[in-house]
């Protein structure tokens, strides 16, 4: 017996998905309600049935983004290594692996929106800030364990390094946009990896075993 066809995504879901792509490819200010409706293949009546404004959609899109990326990172392979230093480095490697496709495929919705709206739309600014800080917080435990093992006397905090990783990654995305492709971002991520390696120096015996 043939399975019934899967139901089409709701118009609300299509608008949220469209917002992720359109805001990342066009920018928040340049994206119109018409652009969003066209990308989602819905009419304006459907748009305003679900969202009273473009900003309201953007706020929900930020939550949608956080849920999607949160699930992706929670299941990512960088959690597997037993050693905390290796987990932190594997996180950076994973971020490098995500630099695939067009700019709108790998750049960050939160960073894109907050660069435009930090002064004009405080609700969007705060939502993006919360999303960035919550993601950074997922790294703090591994960084803290790595610090305790490899750099116990260092004067920086795990929280500050976790936030720095996000600053470096957002900067990598800006370079990718400025240069029109992923190579500049990949180079920046490689520098981030080398910097983190320097913060957690291996003992001499471990260095000799490293190929």
From TrEMBL:
<keyword id="KW-0804">Transcription</keyword>
<dbReference type="GO" id="GO:0003677">
    <property type="term" value="F:DNA binding"/>
</dbReference>
<feature type="domain" description="HTH tetR-type">
    <location>
        <begin position="9"/>
        <end position="69"/>
    </location>
</feature>
<feature type="DNA-binding region" description="H-T-H motif">
    <location>
        <begin position="32"/>
        <end position="51"/>
    </location>
</feature>
<dbReference type="Pfam" id="PF16925">
    <property type="entry name" value="TetR_C_13"/>
</dbReference>
<dbReference type="InterPro" id="IPR036271">
    <property type="entry name" value="Tet_transcr_reg_TetR-rel_C_sf"/>
</dbReference>
<protein>
    <submittedName>
        <fullName>TetR/AcrR family transcriptional regulator</fullName>
    </submittedName>
</protein>
<dbReference type="Pfam" id="PF00440">
    <property type="entry name" value="TetR_N"/>
</dbReference>
<dbReference type="InterPro" id="IPR023772">
    <property type="entry name" value="DNA-bd_HTH_TetR-type_CS"/>
</dbReference>
<keyword id="KW-0805">Transcription regulation</keyword>
<dbReference type="InterPro" id="IPR009057">
    <property type="entry name" value="Homeodomain-like_sf"/>
</dbReference>
<dbReference type="InterPro" id="IPR001647">
    <property type="entry name" value="HTH_TetR"/>
</dbReference>
<keyword id="KW-0238">DNA-binding</keyword>
<dbReference type="InterPro" id="IPR011075">
    <property type="entry name" value="TetR_C"/>
</dbReference>
């Amino acid at each position: 017996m043939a399975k019934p066809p899967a139901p089409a995504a709701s118009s609300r879901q299509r608008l949220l998905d469209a917002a992720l792509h359109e805001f990342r490819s066009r920018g928040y200010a340049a994206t119109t309600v018409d652009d969003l409706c066209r990308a989602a293949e819905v009419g304006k009546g459907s748009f305003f049935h679900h969202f009273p404004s473009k900003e309201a959609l953007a706020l929900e899109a930020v939550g949608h983004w956080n849920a999607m990326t949160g699930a992706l990172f929670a299941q990512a392979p960088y959690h597997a290594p037993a050693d905390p230093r290796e987990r932190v480095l594997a996180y950076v490697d994973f971020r490098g692996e995500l630099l695939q496709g067009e700019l709108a495929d790998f750049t960050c919705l939160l960073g894109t929106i907050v660069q435009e709206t930090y002064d004009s739309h405080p609700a969007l600014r705060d939502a993006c800030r919360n999303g960035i800080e919550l993601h950074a917080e997922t790294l703090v435990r591994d960084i803290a364990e790595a610090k305790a093992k490899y750099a116990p006397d260092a004067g920086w905090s795990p929280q500050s390094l976790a936030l720095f990783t996000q600053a470096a990654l957002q900067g990598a995305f800006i370079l990718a946009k400025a240069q029109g492709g992923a190579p500049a971002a990949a180079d920046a991520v490689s520098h981030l990896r080398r910097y983190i390696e320097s913060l957690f120096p291996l003992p001499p015996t471990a260095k000799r075993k490293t190929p």
